[in-house]
Amino acid sequence: MDKKPSLSFVIPVYNEGENIKDLYLEIVSMCHQSQFTDFEVIVVDDNSTDHTLDVLRALTPIKVITFRKQFGQTAAMDAGIKAAVKDLIVTMDGDGQNDPAEVPKMVEYLFEKDLDVVSGWRKHRKDTTSKKTVSRVANFLRSKIINDGINDSGCSLKVYRKECFDYVNLYGEMHRFIPAILKIQGFKVGEVVVNHRARTKGLTKYTWSRSVKGLIDMIAVWFWKKYALRPLHLLGALGFGFIFLSFLFGLMTVREFLTGQDLSDTLWLMLTLFTFMIGLVIFISGLIMDILVKSYFETTTNRPYLIKEIFENK
């Protein structure tokens, strides 16, 4: 690094009134001590019902984005990222478990290895046993399904070059799989071990439903990685498989017919017609999806959330 890069801190919060001020002060202190003189802190309030917004209004300098209703952590992160204007984007949770003191090390590693993304690895997590168990299972499945080379994709503490998000929109629980999505697009991703702290105030927002949604989104990322640009490669092959199966059933039908078998007493004719129609439908669906994907990339501007207010204290 010839000079210190500018930093945009993006922090999604929901009912973190007891934690967000301390985290904010830690970030500001770290930036001054590490000589990151050009930085901004963007907090996205996911329609909190406690005093989080009152705490945020009293902080300066800060940019705050508030949602009209609760849209979730991924939507909040997407809104904050789109509002960021600095060289690097640093994402972290608002509960204080991510340590801002790790950011200089991550930034240095990004430039040293010429990476686009550096993901934090909570190697020694300070969470409950159940939460760590679910995380291990999720990481194992992700390594098998997506194979993004990241040990702890669920860690929110990450550093990105701003250009990583020029053409990326987040939805569902996709914030967990940002490194995988960016790696698919050709960005270089690395990982470093970071300090993880126990939650001391407030309540965890973790629920089992988030794990289920995360699994579904993991499958979506797998499809994106393999077939998003050409879904016809998957559905076409599957359709041709059924059509080939119908051909085999058709041979059995012909054999039964030539041997004088009453076709009303056998399933071969029905299986032939059924598998052929299924294969044809799947293949045509692949063609339609191919057209829809092209249209999506050319026309989409939708976002899965609504912003109520943006204010900035300077």
Would you write up a description of this structure?
The chain has 314 residues and is of the alpha/beta class. It has two domains: 222 residues, Spore Coat Polysaccharide Biosynthesis Protein SpsA, Chain A (Alpha-Beta Complex), CATH 3.90.550.10; 68 residues. It is 46% helix and 14% strand. The chain is built from nine helices and eight strands. Strands 7-5-6-4-1-2-3-8 form an eight-stranded mixed sheet, with helices on both faces. Helix 5 packs parallel to helix 7 and helix 8 packs antiparallel against helix 9. It is elongated, with a radius of gyration of 25 Å. The two termini are 28 Å apart. The mean pLDDT is 84.
Average pLDDT taken over every residue: 84
Q: How many strand elements? A: 8
Give, in spatial order, the strands making up the sheet with the most strands.
Answer: 7-5-6-4-1-2-3-8
Kindly, what is the distance between the CA atoms of the first and last residues, rounded to a whole number of angstroms? Answer: 28 Å
Tally of separate domains: 2
Helix and strand composition category: alpha/beta
* CATH architecture annotation of the largest domain: Alpha-Beta Complex
Fraction of helical residues: 40-55%
CATH superfamily of the largest domain: Spore Coat Polysaccharide Biosynthesis Protein SpsA, Chain A
- Highest CATH level, the class of the largest domain: Alpha Beta
pLDDT < 50 stretches: none
Overall 3D shape? elongated
Q: Enter the CATH topology name of the largest domain.
A: Spore Coat Polysaccharide Biosynthesis Protein SpsA, Chain A
* β-sheet strand percentage: 5-15%
Radius of gyration: 25 Å
Question: How would you sum up the major sheet?
Answer: 8 strands, mixed
